[in-house]
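Protein modeling request. Please complete all fields; requests missing the sequence field cannot be processed.
Requester role: graduate student
Desired output: 3D structure, token encoding
Chains: 1
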Amino acid sequence: MGTVGVNLKVVNSKTNEVLLTQPYQGYYNEKSMGGYVGTWERVMNMALERMVNQVSTDPKFIKALQTI
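Delivered output (68 residues):
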């Protein structure tokens, strides 16, 4: 099982106004032979991909970017 997380803050660089502060996490669980380097890399890559997808599709994040 892999978990990747970030606390993302969007700030207007001109006014220093914080437009969004939001935690995001991606999880992935794979049932296979553990201990192999390739397995751990794949699990963490999938968790990262899910987190990035969560960020990029969050309406609050998109709205914050549109106000800059």
